[in-house]
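task queued by scheduler; priority normal; single chain, no ligands, no partner chains; default sampling; output format set to structure tokens
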Amino acid sequence: MKKTSNNVLIYDDLTCITRICKKCGIPKPLLDFCKKKQCEFGRTYTCYDCTNTYSRDQYLRRKDRIIQTIKKYRSSKQVKLTRKNYQTRFKEMNPNYYKSYHKQLRELENSICIWHYSRGMYKCLCCNLNDGKIFLQIDHINNNSKKEERTQLARLLIKRNLPDGFQILCGSCNHAKFRNKGICPHIENREVII
């Protein structure tokens, strides 16, 4: 026990202090009493056991009334918004926020994939077009695209840790390769010239 300058007692160890419970009349250590700042030593005058039995008895006496109140509250229209309801309301109120966010996310994912598969050069591997990321596209080397890979290919590749089997082509080379049964016309012309 210490004394401060204002003659207020500060106890280092609350286990040495005992208090008699007002309900059961048994002396118990101070730590066996509920916390309450307004009371002496910051603890109530009834122990945990007595407080729990009192709360349980009160609940059992009022159980029917409590259940009716809960049912009435849940059936009313003033139910608190759940997270999903809040998100849908936010999307309805701010449609441009989600559009711009997802657009930035797609651009970032595409630029990561283009940088990885073009080996950091940002150019078409077939015709060496170097006009930036706008015209570049991700292409399957073996022309074995699956249905799930057609919409958000960059996101799918990032989730799979950027696997092999893909290359970067410009839009015209990619389309020409698709139309020409998997062979780009630039490569065909090179073979004829050589």
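post-processing summary
- The radius of gyration is 36 Å.
- Helices lie at 48-75, 83-93, 95-117, 153-159, 171-179, 185-193.
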